[in-house]
Amino acid sequence: MIRLPAVAGAFYEGEEDKLKKQIEWSFLHPLGPGKIPQVPSQKGKRNNLFFIVPHAGYIYSGPVAAHSYYYLASEGKPDVVIILGPNHTGLGSYVSLWPKGKWKTPLGEIEIDEQIAMDLVRESEVIDIDEKAHLYEHSIEVQVPFLQYFFDSKTKIVPIVIMMQTPEISEYLAEGITKIMQKYRDKDIIVIASSDMNHYEPHEKTIEKDNMAIEKIVNLDYKGLFNVVEEKDVTACGFGPMMTVLILAKKFNKKPYVLKHATSGDTFGDKSSVVGYLSVRFGD
Question: I need a labelling partner for 87 at 20 to 30 A (CA). Which of 130, 192, 239, 253 fits?
């Protein structure tokens, strides 16, 4: 079972060589890390287990996303990446997992870790097996070429899209992922929360609203993040995935480090109506 790309040629370049150059551009952009990381051949202990990464078109959010991937790649190839994204399409279940096979992009194919995927369905109590939710969803797909660029096809993924973004759902997901990470201690497992921040307001207003959410993120206050989104109209699309990694960070005693916060106005120029982007690592 192969999941074909839905947004290749739109959110990112549709040809292999052009896509590789676009990823490199993201790292070398003035708002990016400034250099492309080297993946070590010998891995040490991984400090950063959880990340928040944006998921817009690379020309908008790629330089911000590159900050998280800089740390991820610098610590070596993970065995499994659990990618949590919001459901933009409205298709499928409240929480939907793609269970087996491979995902394809212009950089090749990446395998699903079928054993961990099925264990996670059992342990979480809230995940359904549902390919339909993933067919046209971009929030997970745009993360995959970054992983392929650095790790080829050696890393496996577990893709999960979340439609019902509540603290309770995030608690169930975090509990299930915790059990998986404890069960598979021999595997190097990381979790990416795929989310953009405030949408389609002027640059200054978006920075102001994003900062309210970032305050909750740096305090690992997942319920506070939910309240800010609900009460202050901060239109971050992936607050469910972000709440989940905040819970996980607290469980694993990882500290939040904001790597980069910018908007599409910073990367693309028009500041009249922007989307906010945030990269955060959770480590020692």
Answer: 253
pLDDT < 50: residue spans in the chain: none
For the whole model, what pTM was predicted? 0.97
Superfamily grouping for domain 1-37+90-162+173-192: LigB-like (3.40.830.10)
- Non-local (6+) Cβ contacts of 193 within 8 A are 50, 51, 52, 53, 84, 238, 241, 242, 244, 245
- Segment 59-71, tens digit of pLDDT: 999 999 999 999 9
C-alpha to C-alpha distance for 243 and 221, rounded to whole angstroms: 8
Give the full edge-to-edge strand order of the sheet including 2-3.
2-3, 102-105, 108-111
